Amino acid sequence: MRVGLGFDVHPFEDNRPLRLGGVDILFPQGLKGHSDADVVLHAVVDALLGALALGDIGEHFPNTDPRYRNADSLIFVQAAGDMVRQRGFSLGNLDVMVLAEKPQISPYKEQMRTVLSEVLDTPRDRISVKATTTEGLGFIGRVEGIAAQAVVLLEKRGGN
Question: What is the pLDDT of residues 36-49, one digit of tens each?
C-alpha cells in the first residue's frame, strides 16, 4: 500500500470562473492560477503523485508551460490516474477536505465525488469530499482564497 498527501491554495481573482473538483461553482470570483486553478484537483494530483513518489504537480505540469495556460485540471488528474494504473496500483480511497469561508461547498460535494469517480475510474464509495471553514481566521476566513487537502491510499493490484 502507498499513502499520498496533497495540498493546494489559490487566492481569489476577479473576472474568472470558479471551478472546484471539476465542478463549476456559482460565485462572483474565481481562483488565480496558470491553469483553471482548481485547488481540489491540484491537491488530488499531488496526493496521487506523492503516493507514487513521483514528485509534485509542478514537476509534471509546470506553470511555465503555455500548454497548461487555462487548462482544465481534469487532464492532470487523468494523467496522474494513468500513472497509478501503469505502476500496478488501484485507488483504495481518496479523502478531500476543502477549506473555504465562501462559497458554501455543501451543495457541490456530491457532484465533485461523481466527477472524481469518473475521471479516476473508481467506485464513488471510495471517494469522500468534505468542507470546512476557518471560523473567520486567516486569509481563508477573510475570503481571500480557498485551500484543499487530499489523502489517497493506493493498493497494489494482484497482491504483489
Answer: 999 999 999 999 99
CB 20, CB 98: distance < 8 Å: yes
At 90, which amino acid appears?
A: S
What pairing do the DSSP bridges indicate for beta strands 145-156 and 127-132?
A: unpaired
- C-alpha span between 147 and 43 (Å, rounded): 9
Give me 130's grid cell.
468534505
Q: Within 2-91, where are the H helices?
A: 39-51, 57-60, 74-86
The reported pTM is: 0.95
Q: How many CB atoms lie within 10 A of CB 116?
A: 28
- 103 DSSP assignment: S
Indicate the number of domains in the chain.
1
Which residues form the domain of 18? 2-159
Query: In this predicted model, what pLDDT tens digit does every residue of 11-33 receive, in sequence order?
Result: 999 999 999 999 999 999 999 99
Location of C-alpha cell 467506485? 123
Q: What is the CATH number of the domain that holds 73?
A: 3.30.1330.50
